């Protein structure tokens, strides 16, 4: 945009992130930037109950001089990832935004490549990378099958309809002022979808979205997120998110979503899962479908 400084704003949303943040910031401060490209790092402390803000500031204060990098910690007292992202966006100085989760470890060229792609490809409004698992312990046998719900992998090395919020680069002018209707990971809920809402807004304005599979980052997954119980919580969150996005598409009218067709489709999905005889797959499918219908019929 005319008059904008040459740079990119990296937004790291945090909730009780004191233990996870050091490794994430270590990778962020090691980014290689081309001459003249500036990076600001914004850590959003989203109502944390630990020392997230202090840890972040202390880590920055210990850094050797990084002439192309600025840093700040800002608070957001309203719980919910969407609120934290909006706070970061409102704070950002640059047109290009890059969202980094508190457990994402970007490769040293990730930020520069995101910046360059958005600058050189004016028809694209958003771009994503490829998350790789960095598990604290050996993952369970079901992990690969369900890895996508951890925002891992590359859906398509090319044009896509949406990308994960983790590692998403986006033009601020396309989403600024749009208030997402999904609160995204509020409290103990694992429902998400704010990133999908943003992608919808990008497409509505005539822009394309790209995923770049060779621009990778690691997603650290602690042992407590590699249990069956956590997987089933994710299933419930996925069902709730799917219902919310469906209602958003149909102006919050459950009857307009095609209830009969959806019911028949879900019955087939459940029957297929039952046919596998795999308890994890059956339970995951059951929680996803029942959570979807509970959320949908509330409207």
Structural write-up:
By secondary structure, this protein is an alpha/beta fold. The protein has 2 domains: 7-225, Spore Coat Polysaccharide Biosynthesis Protein SpsA, Chain A, CATH 3.90.550.10; 228-297. The protein is built from 9 helices and 9 strands. The chain has helices at residues 21-29, 52-61, 81-91, 110-120, 172-175, 194-204, 228-249, 259-276, 279-297, and strands spanning 7-14, 38-46, 69-76, 96-101, 104-106, 124-135, 158-160, 169-171, 208-221. β2 (38-46), α2 (52-61) and β3 (69-76) form a beta-alpha-beta unit. α7 (228-249) runs parallel beside α9 (279-297) and α8 (259-276) runs antiparallel to α9. It starts with 6 loop residues before the first strand and ends with a helix. The mean pLDDT is 91. It comes from Dokdonia pacifica. InterPro entries: Glyco_trans_2-like, Glycosyltransf_2, Nucleotide-diphossugar_trans. Keywords: Transferase.
């Amino acid at each position: 945009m005319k008059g904008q400084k040459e740079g990119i704003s990296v937004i790291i949303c945090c909730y009780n992130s004191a233990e996870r943040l050091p490794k994430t910031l270590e990778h962020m401060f090691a980014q290689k930037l081309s001459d003249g490209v500036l990076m600001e790092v914004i850590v959003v402390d989203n109502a944390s109950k630990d020392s997230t803000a202090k840890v972040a500031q202390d880590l920055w204060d210990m850094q050797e001089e990084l002439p192309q990098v600025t840093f700040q910690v800002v608070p957001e007292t309203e719980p919910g990832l969407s609120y934290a992202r909006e706070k970061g966006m409102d704070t950002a100085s640059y047109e290009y935004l890059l969202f980094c989760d508190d457990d994402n470890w970007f490769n040293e060229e990730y930020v520069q490549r995101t910046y360059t792609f958005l600058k050189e490809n004016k028809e694209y409004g958003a771009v994503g990378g490829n998350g790789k698992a960095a598990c604290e312990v050996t993952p369970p046998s079901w992990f690969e099958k369900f890895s996508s719900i951890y925002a891992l992998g590359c859906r398509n090395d090319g044009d896509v309809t949406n990308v994960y919020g983790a590692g998403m680069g986006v033009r601020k002018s396309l989403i600024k002022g749009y208030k997402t209707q999904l609160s995204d990971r509020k409290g103990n809920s694992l429902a998400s979808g704010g990133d999908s809402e943003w992608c919808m807004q990008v497409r509505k304005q005539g822009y394309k979205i790209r995923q770049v599979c060779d621009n990778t980052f690691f997603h650290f997954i602690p042992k407590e997120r590699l249990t069956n119980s956590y997987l089933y919580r994710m299933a419930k969150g996925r069902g709730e998110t799917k219902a919310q996005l469906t209602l958003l598409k149909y102006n919050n009218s459950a009857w307009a979503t095609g209830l009969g067709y959806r019911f028949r489709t879900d019955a087939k999905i459940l029957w297929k899962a039952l046919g596998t005889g795999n308890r994890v797959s059956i339970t995951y499918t059951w929680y996803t479908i029942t959570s979807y219908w509970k959320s949908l019929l509330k409207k």
